[in-house]
Amino acid sequence: MRLKDIINSARNILSVTVKPTWDEFSLLFKIVLVGLVIVGMYSFAIQLTALAFVNFRLYSSPYVIWGLMGFVIVIYFIVYYKGRKSGWW
């Protein structure tokens, strides 16, 4: 694409857009905030689990660590499917 085509395309997009209402904006803000909280909780759980395994590795064999990781994954899937069945998400 040439530069002129890009500029015309940007003008067309800007001419179609409208400013969102306060309700639309607040709904979008809430959705983004909930998404950030969920991603933050997942990253915190992964970081906490990794920290526990790093400290635990000094005192046990790799088989115990793999077993614990498998256990954590199984618990995660049980909670996930129970939540789906109960209508939590």
What would your notes on this structure say?
This protein has 89 residues and is mainly alpha-helical. It has two domains: 19-58; 61-89. The protein is 83% helix and 0% strand. It contains three helices and no strands. The longest helix is centred in the middle third of the chain and has 35 residues, at 22-56. The radius of gyration is 23 Å and the shape is elongated. It starts with a helix and ends with a helix. The relative contact order is 0.05. The model has no long low-confidence stretch (mean pLDDT 84).
Tell how many strands the DSSP assignment holds. 0
What is the N-to-C succession of helices and strands?
A: HHH
How many helical elements?
Answer: 3
Overall spatial form:
elongated
Distance between the termini: 43 Å
Provide the β-strand percentage band.
under 5%
Structural class: mainly alpha
Mean pLDDT: 84
Concise summary:
The chain is built from 3 helices and no strands. The protein is elongated.
Q: What's the layout of helices and strands?
A:
Blueprint: H1 3-16, H2 22-56, H3 62-86
Search tags:
elongated, 2 domains, mainly alpha
